[in-house]
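Quick one, tokens below:
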């Protein structure tokens, strides 16, 4: 299937010998909105880093659009990854932060201008182009980080706890905005969070990870609980 992401029996071992991911299998058709839920240390971020190419599995394969990308360098995968810290460049204004990746790819200035303007409009940042990063609120910085990640038109988008540093009121508002942007783009998205309300709001499918494995999956809390044996899942979801 076109642009399908497949993880085929992927295992990742830490330096101390402990398993970060254990024989994990996952298939995401194009356009899937997947939320990855789980407690700290369950393997969520390791999963993203492997898909992004920042780490290499110790066994298994990662396949995208029919090609084995297990050992493909990150910059050749065409994926977008937004970290929870945003990692914006403080010495660059909003415009230059968003256009940074496009400039590194050698895109002509006229095309960069057009694309940056599109991203500013998409993320509700019209009029912010020449503002300093230091002048922005937490929510505005989050939007800039999202715009920068989307600017190169990634084939797959990954968001690692993108709202964790914001207060709950702002998180709920921005979550709705992000979900709408992702839905409008139709891009395959993996949204990592430890918050079950965020997970079901952001994804049309949720998997829960525990001890490096996919413990269950579902499109609702009830389905998730039914797919995952044991009392711990109910405790984790507060049910």
């Amino acid at each position: 299937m076109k642009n399908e992401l497949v993880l085929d029996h992927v295992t990742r071992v830490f330096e101390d010998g402990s398993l970060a991911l254990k024989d994990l299998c996952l298939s995401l058709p194009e356009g899937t909105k997947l939320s990855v839920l789980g407690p700290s240390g369950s393997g969520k971020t390791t999963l993203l880093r492997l898909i992004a190419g920042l780490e290499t599995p110790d066994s298994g394969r990662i396949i995208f659009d029919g090609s084995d990308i297990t050992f493909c360098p990150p910059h050749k995968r065409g994926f977008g990854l937004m970290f929870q810290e945003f990692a914006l460049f403080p010495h660059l204004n909003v415009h230059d932060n968003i256009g940074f990746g496009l400039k590194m790819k050698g895109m002509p200035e006229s095309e960069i201008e057009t694309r940056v303007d599109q991203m500013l409009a998409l993320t509700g940042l019209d009029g912010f182009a020449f503002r300093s990063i230091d002048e922005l609120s937490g929510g505005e910085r989050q939007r800039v980080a999202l715009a920068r990640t989307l600017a190169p038109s990634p084939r797959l988008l990954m968001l690692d706890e993108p709202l964790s540093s914001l207060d709950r009121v702002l998180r709920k508002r921005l979550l709705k905005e992000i979900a709408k942007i992702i839905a409008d783009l139709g891009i395959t998205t993996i949204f990592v969070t430890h918050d079950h309300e965020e997970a079901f709001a952001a994804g049309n499918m949720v998997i829960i990870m525990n001890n490096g494995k996919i413990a269950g999956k579902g499109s609702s809390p009830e389905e998730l609980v039914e797919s995952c044996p044991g009392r711990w899942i109910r405790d984790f979801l507060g049910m």
